[in-house]
Structure formats: C-alpha cells, structure tokens
Write a structure and sequence with these properties.
Nucleotidyltransferase, domain 5, six-stranded mixed sheet, 6 strands, 24% strand, RNase H type-1 domain-containing protein, RNA-DNA hybrid ribonuclease activity, RNase_H-like_dom_plant, RNaseH-like_sf
Length: 174
C-alpha cells in the first residue's frame, strides 16, 4: 500500500514580485557569523528596475534578530540617502521582526525600541510598510548580505551595479 506524501514533490519556487504601481520595493537581509554581520539591500521600482542598493558589514556579535533589525535600519537609511520619498514596501524574510513591528505597542524590549525608531523613520516616506516574504523572493538581498559578510566590505550603488548582482536581479524576475 502506497501512502500519499504530506507535501507535494512539485513545490513551485516562488520568485520576487514587482510592487504595486506607484510603489518602490526595498528588499533587505542580514547574515550572521561568529563575530561579524553582513547586511544587504536592493531597491527596485514598479517595473523591477534597480534604483540602488548595497550593504555592509560590522564586526560585532549579535543575534539574528538584532542583525535583521540593523539591516532594516540600514535599508531605510539607504532609501533616504537616495532621496526616495515615494510609497515604499520594505520586504524581508524574517517573520519574527515583521510580527514585532505589527505589535509594537506591547514590546518593551531593546529590540522593540530599535524597531520603533525604524518605524518612526517611515514618516520620511509618503507611505511605508514592512511585509514578510519567502526566502526565495529575497534572493538578491540575501546575495548582497552574504557578499558583504564574506568580503568584509561596505558598498553603495545606484543604477550602475556589479555584474553578479545584475545576474541575480535578472534571475529574480525571469
């Protein structure tokens, strides 16, 4: 007697989706190691064109949640440096941070205070929202944070960006 699998073997891998018309989407991520973190951000318009991105690394020991919170702050700062004031969707694959920002009134932790600072920075934009996405929809930000972590570099780019990032962007939308 053969048993049906609980999960299908034909699971379709989801991909990055363009933001709604009139919005900019900012994907970000963090990589955490023994004594260092890397963070990465990619900013795209409603057509999927890259407006900017980059990331960096810091030598410190923090939890994954703290690193993701730092990546969130850095992504906001990057959008501000690029003077992007439009309607913005911030997208990440760390569900706990997304849940915490949606329940901030009850959060009295140190991370909660950092998240409140990030949420207050949303006032810079016409509108801003943090949403969760699957890891497979956050590939470029994930590549950037791993690159910043492994190469121990800080980098900021606008429309002209590295070929490995370009290739990941193309794979993301095709």
């Amino acid at each position: 007697m053969l048993e049906e699998p609980l999960l299908s073997n034909n699971i379709a891998k989801k991909k990055w989706k363009k933001p709604p018309k009139g919005f900019i989407k900012i994907n970000f991520d963090a990589a955490v190691g023994e004594n260092r973190i890397g963070y990465g951000t990619i900013i795209r318009d409603e057509e999927g064109f890259v407006l900017g991105g980059g990331g960096g690394f810091k030598k410190l020991r923090v939890s994954v949640q703290e690193a993701e919170c730092m990546a969130f702050k850095e992504s906001i700062d990057m959008a501000r440096r690029l003077k992007l004031r439009e309607h913005v969707l911030f997208e990440m694959d760390h569900v706990e941070l997304v849940n915490r920002i949606n329940n901030l009134d009850k959060d009295v932790t140190v991370i909660g205070a950092r998240i409140k600072e990030c949420k207050a920075a949303f006032n810079f934009f016409k509108s801003a929202k943090l949403v969760w996405t699957e890891r497979s929809c956050n590939n470029v930000a994930n590549l950037l944070c791993k690159k910043m972590y492994s190469e121990a570099i800080n980098s900021l780019f606008e429309i002209d960006y590295p070929s490995d990032i370009h290739n990941a962007v193309i794979r993301d939308v095709s």
